[in-house]
Automatic annotation (TrEMBL):
It comes from Neolewinella marina. CDD domains: ARS_like. SUPFAM superfamilies: Alkaline phosphatase-like. Keywords: Calcium, Hydrolase, Metal-binding, Signal. Residues 25-351 form the Sulfatase N-terminal domain. InterPro entries: Alkaline_phosphatase_core_sf, Sulfatase, Sulfatase_CS, Sulfatase_N. Its cofactor is Ca(2+). Pfam families: Sulfatase. One of its GO terms (molecular function) is arylsulfatase activity. This is Sulfatase. Belongs to the sulfatase family. Residues 1-20 form the signal peptide.
Length: 448
């Protein structure tokens, strides 16, 4: 018995040693701007996204992934830090306009701005404070080289990616969106002045990410954060793709938008091919997520980026796919509600192989779901500026929305995905429980 017990312990130790010696994965994070939950080919057959579809087939698709504050800058702050944006006083996007006290180049000396007329009369941040700890800073401490490509929208030059844990940045300016997707891209502070007139922005950024992967020669792992400007407006598609969709019966802004989605898909495909050509596919984790819901029709989901219902499923629910070779089972799906704040601890667990125990981080690691295991149920909280809609909480199938005007809406998303049947009056116990939880959260966060 003693010999058997000793042999068992030795086997466990040997297994632990092998695990400890497994190399940390390279990581590629695709962060898309304004791509709706329905704006992918595997959910909408009018859009051609074969590469994103293949990515979904290679990993785990999260059917209920959400953004805590579905707005540009707050969404980015949450992804970087694992925190609910409202806790960092990120309530609205950084305006970058002279009307709000910024220079034409998108700079300001004021840490906060106010928005007259906004129901949320709280000062919102004009940059991500350097004191906030980003996933890049954490990964760097574990030997990662961090490359950032694309849109930042979390502050001007002193607060750019290279001051927030990233080793290099490319194509990053102060503005939240380009003036055009055809070069020259920006009217002021153009970060890509060498682009040839007429070049397409998505392609220029993709060229750099492909170059980075191809030429990477360091011994340690890399983390590539490819944050797209697309598919944010102005909706200008690549001409050849616009022509393709026009031939298929689309017209105007819809053909332009569809062309942008397919150009995005081609970009994803080129970067994944660079990973494959490098021979590192089996040791590269891929994450694909959007920063908020879509601008156009999100049916069957209600709401969207605009129109006063950004906390509707069409505004807060986004595509999320994670492919982690050796961990995720290809072609699987989960309906467990998760948020973008969960990416931060997930990245750290991927990098270290250890359970994440972070202070003041609301996100939780998604590794259990990636392994096909269960996660402890929890509530997800949301906050919104700009319109009457104020906050929301999701627990399981139930979702409660609160409005500045004092009204509440309660929906059972399993039975009513389109959020048409308000159950607030006929489900008083559920309504009371979630209302109290939401009130406590608002008080804790400081938005009550």
């Amino acid at each position: 018995m003693r010999q058997s017990h000793l042999l068992f312990l030795l086997m466990l130790c040997a297994k632990g040693t092998v695990s400890a010696q497994e190399p940390a994965p390279h990581i590629v994070l695709f962060f898309v701007d304004d791509l709706g939950w329905m704006d992918v080919g595997f959910r909408n057959d009018r859009l051609h996204t074969p590469n994103i579809d293949r990515l979904r087939a290679s990993g785990l698709s999260f059917e209920r992934a959400y953004i805590p504050t579905p707005t540009c800058s707050p969404s980015r702050a949450s992804l970087l830090t694992g925190k609910e944006a409202a806790r960092m006083q990120f309530y609205r996007h950084i305006p970058n306009t002279t009307k709000h006290g910024f220079t034409p180049e998108g700079r300001t000396t004021e840490a906060f701005s106010n928005w007259p007329g906004d129901p949320v009369q709280l000062p919102t941040r004009n940059w991500l404070p350097l004191e906030e700890v980003t996933y890049a800073e954490k990964l760097k401490a574990h030997g990662y080289y961090n490359m950032f490509v694309g849109k930042w929208h979390l502050g001007h030059e002193p607060y750019h990616p290279i001051h927030q844990g990233f080793d290099r940045q490319f194509g990053t300016g102060n503005q939240g969106h380009p003036g055009s997707y055809l070069a020259p891209f920006f009217r002021h502070g153009n970060p890509l002045p060498e682009a040839t007139e007429g070049e397409y922005l998505t392609g220029v950024l993709t060229d750099e990410s492909v170059r980075f992967i191809t030429e990477y020669d360091r011994s340690g792992p890399f983390m590539l954060s490819h944050w797209y400007y697309t598919v944010h407006g102005p909706h200008i598609g690549r001409p050849d793709l616009v022509e393709r969709y026009t031939r298929e019966g689309m017209s105007g802004k819809y053909a332009e938008y569809a062309a942008m989605v397919t150009a995005l898909d081609e970009s994803v495909g080129r970067i994944l091919k660079a990973v494959d050509d490098k021979g590192i596919t089996d040791n590269t984790a891929i994450i694909f997520i959007s920063d908020q819901g879509g601008y156009f029709d999100n049916a069957p989901l209600s709401g969207g980026k605009t129109g006063g219902d950004a906390l509707g499923e069409g505004g807060a629910r986004v595509p999320l796919i994670i492919s982690y070779p050796g961990v995720t089972t290809p072609g699987t799906r989960t309906s467990v509600p998760v948020q973008s704040i969960d990416i931060y601890p997930t990245l750290l667990e991927m990098a270290t192989g250890k359970s994440f125990r972070g202070e003041n981080v609301q996100g939780v690691s998604l590794l259990p779901l990636l392994r096909g295991e269960k996660m402890k149920p929890r509530k997800l909280y949301f906050f919104r500026s700009y319109e009457d809609q104020r906050s929301a909480v999701i627990e399981g199938d139930w979702k409660l929305k609160r409005y500045h005007s004092g009204t509440y809406e309660l929906f059972n998303l399993r039975e009513d995905l389109v959020e048409e049947n308000n159950r607030y009056a006929d489900s008083p116990q559920v309504a009371k429980k979630l209302r109290r939880a939401l009130q406590r959260w608002e008080e804790q966060v400081g938005v009550r």
